Input
Amino acid sequence: MKGVLITFEGIDGCGKSTQAERLVEALRRRGETVVHTREPGGTELGQRIRHLFLHLQGLDIDPTTEALLMAADRADHVRRVIAPALAQGAIIVCERFADSMIAYQGYGGELPLDALHALNALATGGLEPDVTFLLDVDPSLAFERRGRPADRIEGKDQGFYHKVRQGYLALQKQNPQRIILLDGALPIEVVHQEILSELARREILSAQGGSGR
Ligand code: TMP
Output
């Protein structure tokens, strides 16, 4: 049985980790085999890349180098975690995937989109999520929500985040079947229920609970 790849996307502070956790809990309660993972940092190598990418003090990394680091993380993650879990029939809930690179390095960092799509294709081997939940919020709300000190990317200004947000919205318009747009300003439970309904509509879950596959 082939598994399912569900990804969560949005700007920092959009609430995607909260929603991913809620979904993972709900799926496990229904008896599903679930792998909860994220990019960057879903493998041992990825954790080191994540540290380099986000937490080295005073490091200036240009968008091209960022994209290459993220592609390395993604290639390792797909081969070691995502593809094997899919082959075993698991539901994978992944926080961020290839769309993040288009939004952050493409729209935010202003790199050519066709080059980034090619890099993503190389890293993923052509694998695409079955469904992606995009939590859309205004950058000012996202800034307010962040409780901890900013990492290297979060230290960028709101202008950067407006570009990233527009990038995500453009991706959603280009892929309306795959990418589901959700209002990240709504209460957590309301968004969670919308996610469960969408998965039921796609027969990934049955409306009564349990797998619809
Ligand atoms: P997060 O795991 O807390 O969302 O942080 C990951 C950060 O890395 C976030 O600021 C988005 C950024 N990022 C990119 O810029 N490009 C990428 O391809 C990915 C996966 C993440």
Notes: The chain is about 55% helix and 15% strand. Residues 12, 38-40, 66, 70, 96, 100-101, 104-105, 153 surround thymidine-5'-phosphate (CB under 6 Å). The radius of gyration is 17 Å. The chain has a mean pLDDT of 95.
